């Protein structure tokens, strides 16, 4: 199947209802837009979200205006806010070979076996608590892993946008969570085929 | 301001006698005011005037001794219904026809 | 200075209404419109917008409040979606017949039953005969620009304007747009000076029983009958198209965006086949058109219809004259017949001898996914099939993406 000819990075976010995947995608949208990407589209999948149910969000990033608002089918990057979702949802559906899979998980990267993909892992839940957040706040922290593994946008810009988004809700702690995760993220390249790891 | 090329036709009517033509001919009962009971007539003050307020065709004058313009009064009887001192009586138009014949 | 930002479509609409300095906002919450009027109530409560927010008990009342406000000479705004719009329906006709310059955003959503919160155009299409001007935005920039221009149009022609944008695809999606500077908007859209408003000093009755025939009023001035008033609404709605173009030209001069107020063509100059669509799906077709040209060598274009009522009969017929085939993709239909836009388009082309062959596709009802690949395949097939079908078969809409 043919892909868009436009140079575009497509990121699909998987989380649970109430976990803040949409907010995380929104922060990254804001930061990439402010970093000079003229085409940024964050399209949440709405309507069936209930607290705890698996949900997903699309984020498309391009230098040029994006005309196609349909949901992402072939992502370059998949972000998973809770590793237990891996048991429920096939999060890698459509992920391009050599694509990037980012997981919040307490296990080391070596225990997540996805030979076709680059895998980035951090214990975002634990680092969030270390940064001073309530247990279970992971949407700010996971952004640090995305920044480290994708090099799409600068962690400084992301920290600013996190602080702006979380005004009145521990802005500094949320930004710190992203920074701690940025430092702690482990990355493992694909084990088969020609890779860009 | 709207653009001058547009007419903007709407339906609006200003209250006043005659908006539906000479409606006096529609009348089958005529309102007759008993000035000995009518509040403004009795007190000489511009008070009450509920007949003026309620008349749907604006044919009652807001004067001391209210008057009714029979050219346009269609005889609906609202003034008689609303008068708090029952000073207005609706009299059959036939009475006035007979009265003319008797004279 | 204008400001470039990234936000949701609902917030873009709210910012435009704030810039337009609406003075009365009355609305009832309904998905996916809710965040728009929620935002407006927040800015009003925070003292950032000098307006009265009237919380009402229904959409019918929401529009009734706006009708009252506009009758008293105040700039008023409301917004709704889906069944909320239908609940307003009686008042929609009333606002148009009263010739009030209202603006309403309709965040398009499928109609129940069965209940759906997702996008299609059936809500707006079902109200196409109310006498409202209907415009359709394709992205957030158009939501902002069209809303501002809609106030100006409504106030110049005294016909209410409905600004439509797709639920979720636009309302809840974040994308960049430019917000004009407040002072420049004020010059483009100064406070409105009504020539005729309700005035206790000069009492009158508005829109009471209006006789079939014209009549002389108490001053002996001839007043129009019902049919005359309705004819005038129709004529001036047709005439409003010209004003819409003038307003767009003025807006373009001030803000640097415009030029496609009625039809927005993409790669149509040499196109043998032209897609006609409204709203965000027309933008989605850009990538389909590019691919069909590059991979299949088909000369394809897409023509976005920006204004649906009044229908740009002559302009659209002229734009499609040189096409061999025209494919109408729409998110709604006249049940028991075919797509409403398709039928309108067919009627516009009827007088022309060289009219193109036509195809009608129904897509995305109640939020059914519209994969770009499906658009690519159906459009490709339609281009290659030519006019081989029997007339009745060719005229029957094809439903895309059914899961029967």
Descriptive overview:
The complex is a heterotrimer of chains A (197), B (103) and C (404). By secondary structure, chain A is α/β, with parallel strands linked by helices. Chain A has a single domain, classed as Pyruvate-ferredoxin oxidoreductase, PFOR, domain III (Pyruvate-ferredoxin Oxidoreductase, domain 3, 3-Layer(aba) Sandwich), CATH 3.40.920. Chain A has five helices and seven strands; from the N terminus they run E-H-E-E-E-E-E-H-H-H-H-E. A seven-stranded mixed sheet of chain A has the order 2-3-1-4-5-6-7, covered by helices on one side. The longest helix of chain A has 14 residues. Chain A is globular and about 45 Å long. The C terminus of chain A is likely disordered. Chain B has 103 residues and is of the alpha+beta class. Chain B has a single domain, classed as 2-Layer Sandwich (Alpha-Beta Plaits), CATH 3.30.70.20. Helices cover 24% and strands 13% of the residues of chain B. Chain B is built from four helices and three strands; from the N terminus they run ββαααβα. A two-stranded antiparallel ribbon of chain B has the order 2-3. Chain B is flat and about 60 Å long. Chain B starts with 11 loop residues before the first strand and ends with a helix. With 404 residues, chain C is α/β, with parallel strands linked by helices. Chain C is built from 14 helices and 18 strands. In chain C, the strands form four sheets. Chain C has a seven-stranded mixed sheet with strand order 3-2-4-5-7-6-15, with helices on both faces. In chain C, strands 12-14-13-16-17-18 form a six-stranded mixed sheet, sandwiched between helices. Chain C has a two-stranded antiparallel ribbon with strand order 1-8. The model of chain C has no long low-confidence stretch (mean pLDDT 96). Chains in contact: A-C, B-C.
Quick synopsis:
Chain B has 4 helices and 3 strands, in the order ββαααβα. Chain B has 103 residues and is α+β, with helices and mostly antiparallel strands. In chain C, helix 1 (9-19) runs parallel beside helix 7 and helix 7 (140-157) crosses helix 9 (226-255).
